[in-house]
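re: ur question from earlier - yeah i can do the single chain one, its not a big deal. heres the input i used so u can compare w yours
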Amino acid sequence: MRSTFMYLFYKSPFENLKKHSDKVSDCGRMFLQAVKCHLDMKCEDFEDLTDQVAKMESEADAIKRNIRGHMPRGILMPVDKFQFFMYLREQDKVLDVVEEALYWLSYRPEEFEDDIKDDLGYLAEKVVPAIEDLSPMVGLALEFFKSGSEEERQKIKSLIRGIRQREHECDQLERELIHKIFTKVKDPLKVFHLIRLVETIGSIADHAQNASDMMRAMVAA
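and the output i got, formated as tokens:
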């Protein structure tokens, strides 16, 4: 078992990582509200929701900078520092892409075709659980690196498997929706906008999986 000696002297970096992951989960729920609001066309809260996401992303960036800037030199870590910072990077990229997807969605405010609209909403719904699982995963990791509990490690691995499965499902939906766009949409500019939007939403789940893969490496026996 990795040393937990660091906890005798320093606040665990995983505590701030948990705060960052909480922001990610909150943004995920806000993202889905914003997407559904935009697709509804009768909802007037899209800009406000997008602004709230941007504010939360900025707050998460501040937490990220605090983690990077206040890691004591020579601190004993229960994990490889490179893995820890790579995890932080991928978790933060989730927020970046959430914000990018909402901005990209706003660039063409007109209504989408009904079947395309339904599929976009469904894709957004499918990526959110992968985002929401990051916070409990980090919470379990915080306790695991203190206690070394095998039960907690298995719970972490179960969440990781769930995120990987959700990312796989999102990839399938992404491919099907891109095929539908090429088949049914005739306006080249709209095709470009929709495909870029679908790829951006899909990449949210990609970064969530990348983060979970780094967590898998950190908790590996």
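The CA atoms of residues 10 and 75 lie 8 Å apart. not sure if urs matches, ping me
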